[in-house]
Write a structure and sequence with these properties.
16% strand; 15 helices; alpha/beta; 2 domains
């Protein structure tokens, strides 16, 4: 007898429950800011990707409202039929100018951008070499291609050189890496990775979801941070939902990349275009980050302070060098319990366990933003000290 839907759902949920991995997302009752209200409690918010405070920024809201009134609530079609508005193309020119690339295209999310770009570029007979800790969207995007897939050890330039030496291809060769790794907060050594890729005639593909708006001059990203401007053999992709405060994804690079994606990227071809209000907000975000250098200055000042104080308390932050600051608790139940206790102290910080992160390295991932005040961070640090000592993670 075949398994019923009810049986399958029960089996899967019980398995998650027994492993301490069943997730019940908390619900925000106000805008996603440094201080907000979650499940009825006023909290310091360390769980958001809202690096620059753009999710509820007045300039973004004003331009979103302006575009909404002029262009309506929706684009009305996919981009290739009747959904390309002049504001879409203006935003894409803005992104290309900002990123210092030959072209750019906006898609519907960072996740679907990886599916669309990798699917459009890679063919059977091509070779792709991917960092072992790359984001799930890269892994899923590569699964949809017929390219030969190899993995190199995390951020290990020598291992990348070895894999490329042992696996040649007459087709396209692509080295794929995150710019900033979302769970550990470390930065890919792009200066050395690109050099090895070029040695083997490979193109470098960088998912800069957590680097855009955070790394490089005026937040231009990890690629810009390492000096690879106007480089036709470096492709940049990412999301517009983190530092930029909205939703969507982008691909930027070679002058002809945009045209290929318009014709071949399936998420672009088969999804309705972005809503005008979203386009307006994203355009304003790009303007604002260049207008106000204090946004990034505050982000990095807060990051340095928070990390230093966590280290003084004795927490392991895994060597993170970006605003992503993991605090290690070991196994998932411990991280989830720490998250629950922190919430009780007025700090919203989410525990992450397997399969999001490897077994034995469950953690709470904190993201400091430009909006946090010193009082916000001190409140969070006091809560961490109390919870860490109660759970035996730190001494004292």
């Amino acid at each position: 007898m075949s398994t019923t839907l009810s049986e399958r759902l029960t089996q899967e949920l019980n398995s998650l429950r027994e492993g301490g991995l069943l997730i019940h997302p908390r619900v925000l009752e106000r805008a996603n800011r440094a201080r907000t209200r979650v499940d009825g409690r006023e909290v310091v918010n360390l769980a958001s990707n809202n690096y620059l405070g753009f999710a509820d920024h007045p300039a973004l809201k004003a331009k979103a409202e302006s575009y909404l009134r002029e262009w309506g609530v929706g684009a009305g079609a996919v981009r290739t039929i009747a959904g390309t508005l002049s504001i879409h193309e203006a935003l894409e020119r803005q992104i290309a100018d900002f990123k210092h690339t030959g072209s750019a295209l906006v898609l519907h999310s960072g996740f679907t951008t990886n599916q669309g770009v990798l699917g459009a570029l890679l063919r059977e007979g091509d070779l792709v070499v991917s960092d072992e800790l790359n984001h799930a969207s890269i892994i899923d995007g590569l699964r949809l291609t017929k390219a030969t897939k190899k993995v190199f050890k995390h951020a290990d330039v020598d291992d990348l050189d070895r894999v490329l030496s042992e696996n040649d291809s007459e087709g396209l060769k692509l080295v794929v890496t995150d710019g900033v790794f979302s769970m550990d907060g470390d930065v890919a050594p792009l200066d050395r990775l690109v050099a090895v890729a070029r040695k083997h005639g490979a193109v470098t593909y960088v998912d800069d979801a957590h680097g855009s708006g955070v790394m490089g001059a005026q937040g231009r990203g990890t690629v810009h941070h390492f000096g690879f401007e106007y480089a036709d053999d470096v492709i940049q992709v990412g999301t517009l939902s983190k530092a930029w405060g909205g939703v969507g994804g982008y691909a930027a690079g070679h002058g002809d990349l945009r045209q290929l994606l318009i014709n071949r990227a399936r998420p672009y071809l088969f999804s309705t275009a972005q809503a005008p209000a979203t386009v307006g907000a994203l355009s304003a975000a790009l303007e604002e980050v260049q207008r106000d250098p204090g946004l990034m200055e505050r982000l990095w000042d807060n990051t340095r302070y928070f990390k230093a104080e966590l280290h003084t308390l004795g927490f392991d932050t895994m060597g993170s060098v970006t605003p992503i600051t993991p605090v290690v608790f070991g196994e998932a139940p411990a991280a989830f319990e720490a998250s629950r206790r922190l919430f009780g102290e007025g700090v919203f910080a989410v525990g992450l366990g397997f399969p999001t992160v490897p077994r034995g390295s469950a953690r709470i991932r904190n993201i400091v933003t430009s909006e946090h005040t010193k009082d916000d961070l001190d409140h969070a640090l006091q809560a961490y000290a109390k919870v860490g000592r109660a759970l035996g993670i730190i001494g004292g």
